[in-house]
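Bumping my old thread because nobody answered last time. Still need a sequence for this structure:
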């Protein structure tokens, strides 16, 4: 979905994983949806880059990937995720793990992201 100013807004409200109460999970998903891939201009949630979200005793653990192995933006994305998730009430710590298996494919994108990129 796009806002009137052209900014992409995520409709994704859940992610695979376990733990945490429903409200905290929702806030974390909303925070992660504010992290954009700077080359594509779509957030990491709608791109399908977040594979797992686990919350255990106040620690948020995110397993994510990049669109390609050689993509240099991993540290920047982790820093943005940490900054946004650390501000959520009840979050005590943040851990991120970058993986490349399974590899990312465009099929992992939300329908909204595909439409925004002209992929039908």
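Sorry it took so long. Here it is:
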């Amino acid at each position: 979905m796009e806002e009137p100013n052209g900014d992409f807004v995520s409709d994704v409200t859940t992610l695979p994983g376990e733990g945490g109460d429903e409200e905290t999970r929702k806030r974390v998903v909303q925070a992660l949806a504010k992290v954009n891939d700077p080359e594509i201009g779509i957030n990491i949630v709608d791109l399908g880059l977040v594979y797992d979200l686990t919350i255990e005793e106040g620690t948020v653990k995110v397993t994510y990937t990049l669109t390609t192995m050689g993509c240099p933006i991993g540290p920047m994305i982790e820093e943005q995720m940490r900054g946004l998730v650390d501000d959520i009430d009840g979050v005590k710590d943040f851990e991120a793990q970058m993986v490349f298996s399974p590899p990312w494919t465009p099929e992992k994108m939300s329908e909204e992201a595909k439409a925004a990129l002209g992929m039908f």
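The chain is about 25% helix and 15% strand. Let me know if any region looks off to you.
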